[in-house]
Write a structure and sequence with these properties.
- The chain is of the alpha+beta class.
- It has one domain: Intergrase catalytic core (hpI Integrase, Chain A, Orthogonal Bundle).
- The chain has helices at residues 2-12, 16-20, 65-76, 122-136, 146-157, 162-169, 175-182, 185-193, 203-207; strands at 29-31, 35-40, 52-57, 96-99, 102-105.
- A hairpin with a 2-residue loop joins strand 4 (96-99) and strand 5.
- Helix 1 (2-12) packs antiparallel against helix 3 (65-76), helix 1 packs across helix 5 (146-157) and helix 6 (162-169) crosses helix 7 (175-182).
- The longest helix is centred in the middle third of the chain and has 15 residues, at 122-136.
- Bound molecules: 2-acetamido-2-deoxy-beta-D-glucopyranose (NAG).
Length: 208
């Protein structure tokens, strides 16, 4: 869960708070052959869906954010489609216990209408991160914004144009940014593809 989350945050230029808002509902987390689209609501009560979609490409190798997300969803036994209106299938960031047989969500996969499933708080995420850091090759301090900043600077270093990075990170709006935001899927996919995730196991550089 931690590694998938960090990979998504890095590739999507997300803050921890953004990642915590990702819902696993199949209309809000759309997984395709070449990429996935993640809906980031503008606020916790974004009922009009005025947030934004972040596009993350599928890349080769074990650090692929899309592959890691799929693995987490299936191993964790998440439910992606509610059976009834109002049933909450919850956020992606929930505790998953890994067992010899695989993994499993610690809590229920969904709750009845009127109830809500909550994502991990940053403090809980951070505590868990301390435990997996050695095995993920991460030694430094990781802040809530590290992956967002690291994603942007890695993309900049690898030649992703500023407009495209701005659109991807949802920083500013200009005509150019709108162009990328609305239309250009190949350009959007280029952001993830240029992060170097496929070439080496680089979660270390991902979060620093
Ligand atoms: C993104 O990275 C570039 C290059 O490191 C930097 O100049 C720019 O300020 C960063 N943008 C944001 C919004 O952090």
């Amino acid at each position: 869960m931690m590694v998938a989350t960090l990979a998504i945050m890095f590739a999507g230029f997300l803050r921890f708070d953004d990642a915590a808002e990702i819902c696993v509902h199949s209309d809000l987390l759309i997984i395709m052959d070449t990429h996935m689209k993640v809906f980031i609501p503008r606020s916790k009560t974004d009922q009009l869906m005025t947030g934004s979609w972040v596009t993350i490409a599928r890349v080769d190798g074990p650090c692929c954010p899309v592959g890691l997300t799929e693995r987490l969803l299936s191993r964790g036994g998440y439910k992606r489609l509610p059976d009834t209106a109002g049933e909450d299938v919850g956020p992606l960031l929930r505790a998953v216990q890994w067992t010899r047989a695989g993994g499993r969500l610690s809590g229920p996969p969904s709750v009845a209408p009127g109830q809500r499933l909550y994502s991990l708080w940053y403090s809980a995420f951070w505590t868990r991160l301390q435990k997996v850091k050695p095995s993920a090759g991460i030694s430094e301090f990781v802040k809530p914004h590290s992956a967002r900043i690291g994603g942007n600077s890695t993309a900049a270093r690898n030649g992703v144009p500023a407009e495209l990075r701005q659109a991807h990170g949802r920083w500013r709006t200009s005509e150019m940014v709108h162009h990328y935001t609305r239309r250009d899927l190949p350009s959007k996919l280029e952001v993830t593809r240029r992060l170097g995730l496929a070439s080496k196991l680089s979660l270390r550089s991902a979060v620093l």
